[in-house]
Amino acid sequence: MKMKYCKRCLQPDTRPGIVIDDEQICFACRYEESKATIDWAAREAELKKFAEDAKAEAKKRGNVYDCIVGVSGGKDSTFQALTARDKLGMNPLLINCAPDEITEIGRKNIENLNNLGFDIISIRPNPRVAKILARKSFFERGNIVAASEYCLWASAYLMAMKMNIPFIIQGENAALTLGAAKNQEASGNAFAVLQLNTLRGGKTDEFLDPENGITEKDLALYQIPSVAEMEKAGIRAIFLQYYSKEWSQVRNADFAIARGLTGRTDDLHALGRYRRYTALDSDAQIPNQMIKYLKFGFGYATDEVCYDIREGRLSREDAKWYVDEYDGLCGEKYIQDTCRYLSITEEEFWEVVDRYVNRDLFMPASECKDPKAKRICGRYVPRFTVGEDYDSEKQ
Ligand SMILES: [Zn+2]
Predict the structure, then answer these.
(1) What is the per-residue pLDDT across 264-310, written as a single tens digit (0 to 9) for each?
(2) Which residues lie near ion ligand 1 (Cβ < 5 Å)?
(3) How far is the CA of 26 from the centre of ligand 1 (A)?
(4) pLDDT tens digit sequence for 2-19
(5) What letters, b where the CB count within 10 A reaches 16 and e where it falls short, cover 142-180?
(6) How far apart are CA 163 and CA 125, in angstroms?
(7) 14 Cα to the center of ligand 1, angstroms
């Protein structure tokens, strides 16, 4: 097996859907480069036109709300909500799909957003169903949050349909930020979420499980409406990132912190990342990123350095330290919490994870003689060197 890194950032080509060109530069780095020549004034004008259209349309429909912003209460959603209201002059309705076992910080941040002067509808999917689906996606995909992401994404679209609201403002297009542009269009059209790898077209059939009591009606909040249905209902959905020159993870975090956002306070080694303002409302992301690391050879700290390299805050060389130090790590507490939530023992947790570990990229810790080598939960040691193209046959 071969793993190649983007020559500009530290994104390996093992990310599903990643586009890396002939010069071995990833799509996200190319997008960053293209930002210098994008006609931002034209994009801003387009966004303003969409906003004005939506206002007129909402008025025609007799609706006081003219747009929907899907919010977790985190950095991006704070920026989206305030942009909608204060920059575009809209009256947004915020839709929050609360994760099962929402964190205290997540609760606080939603409250903060509420207190910034917004109406919020919070959706609370049935926890019995959520738990069965989390178990299913963990056992069958090695992904704890896969099912909950359907619900999360579906919420804004479903509510736009149900409440007859013509405009949806989403945050980031993964094709642009992560370079996963193979299957997903790299545009401002937020119907493209249906093309996300993890959502598999938004179809929920695979979650049907009558034996465990999961029927179609249990999945109502998980089903993203089809593009045809939404277009018929006169709904437009956009990614704000595409229209906003200043959009960046770090900048959005600064923006939101200044307006009351609370971050995590844990040891960074337990989080597997070095910034404290992502995925705040659910702890399940932390072990999930560790599993991703063992599957593909990169975790959340890699995403973070890639943003920092592209936006000029870190050199590629310096960034390697951050990845070595934090990527793929997960505090014991988060694994225990996950096991309790999924009603499995730690042995059962690792039996499943072991099935998904890429053996070409990782060796069992017991086979590693180097006491200083990085160990993931004491179980696995990477065979590759961060930032260097790797060929398992040449080891
Ligand atoms: Zn790159």
Answers:
(1) 999 999 999 999 999 999 999 999 999 999 999 999 999 999 999 99
(2) 6, 8-9, 11, 26, 29
(3) 4
(4) 999 999 999 999 999 999
(5) bbbbbbbbbbbbbbbbbbbeeebbbbbbbbbbbbbbbbb
(6) 18
(7) 13
